[in-house]
Write a sequence for this structure.
DNA sequence: CAAAAACGTTGATGTATAACAATGTTCTAT
DNA sequence: ATAGAACATTGTTATACATCAACGTTTTTG
């Protein structure tokens, strides 16, 4: 159950069994079917999720009804609607299982308790935030002013598994293109 | 010299004079003229900067030679090229003073020493990262699929001081528009 | 397993914004 | 103060991608 999470932790920081068990005790298993929503716009986000198996995505819907996907979390990654989780305000975004998925969920109180009281977890959270920030930054600066074809090539370089595992429709929403345009571009590669 | 930084800290966390002085002792004053580069692409970023007065910006130049501004740090804000600072790898970006500015610079070793050994600073850094991440996220999802005019309106709503304080050229590079387009849009508002 | 729905692909057309360009204006530096 | 450079504005033209649409294919579901 916790092998994946254990690997995540021990790959990043030296720790002991007691601490690991303390951490594990706060993460509750949660199995969800494809397309299940973990969070909808307007909800207040209560959990951080660790993906054991499957994939979840974070997206928003603009006023024309178009989806924009911000982030895919695959196995071995954390995902949540961070702004809402941090401030406990209604989310602007949706969190949804892309595939049938096995998750581990930790609630906000337990999460911050671990952050505040467990040296190892504090370090891990700092790493998560740093990584999340860098990833977000790369996506902004990496895409700004890029042509559509270059966006696809960027994805091919930095996150090729997304192209093979995720439907065209969702990839298009991740790149900010229409499915029709993405389909044409893929034919050119 | 350290009033602004003191305010930043005490606004966010309760602390004592000794800790404040320890923190201040690591931040060295640095005055820079308008347009001075603090970091260029390919450099390894060595410092975190706190802006006492003035403004610095983080931007990159794409292969067509166009600038894309990612972030403006005004007085009372922190700014650096975080990916490079964290990993100590060559930066993809430039860091430049937009106006004559008074900065406080802390080097990487001192910064992480404070993070690791000072409870208050650890908390502050966590807040900085959370805030930076949320800001970056809002800019991605907020802009994805937006029309140019809506981007300007977004800026007017969330960061109006940028429009009044920063040149059209730089605002345009922040919004991913040409100066000509921005000029036309502003006439429509 | 059959029917329906969702998705992917390809074509024709429209449009928002870039690119180019010319002129006027505001900074900057000596 | 004045010359030069950078910047802002406005007009014209070009183009990348969206939109709309049709059709074939795959996936879902009862």
């Amino acid at each position: 159950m916790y092998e994946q999470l254990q690997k995540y932790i021990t790959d990043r920081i030296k720790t002991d069994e007691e601490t690991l068990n303390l951490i594990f005790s706060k993460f509750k298993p949660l199995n969800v079917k494809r397309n299940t929503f973990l969070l909808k716009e307007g909800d207040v986000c209560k959990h951080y999720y660790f993906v054991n198996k499957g994939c979840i995505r974070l997206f928003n819907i603009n006023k024309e009804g178009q989806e924009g996907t911000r982030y895919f979390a695959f196995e071995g990654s954390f995902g949540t609607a961070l702004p809402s989780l941090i401030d406990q305000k209604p989310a602007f975004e949706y969190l949804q299982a892309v595939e049938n998925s096995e998750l581990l969920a930790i609630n906000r109180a337990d999460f911050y308790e671990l952050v505040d009281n467990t040296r190892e977890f504090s370090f891990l959270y700092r790493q998560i935030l740093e990584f999340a920030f860098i990833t977000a930054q790369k996506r902004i600066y990496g895409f700004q002013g890029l042509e559509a074809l270059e966006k696809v090539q960027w994805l091919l370089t930095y996150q090729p598994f997304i192209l093979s595992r995720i439907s065209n429709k969702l990839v298009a929403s991740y790149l900010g293109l229409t499915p029709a345009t993405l389909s044409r571009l893929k034919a050119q590669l």
Summary: Residues 119-143 of chain A form the longest helix (25 residues).
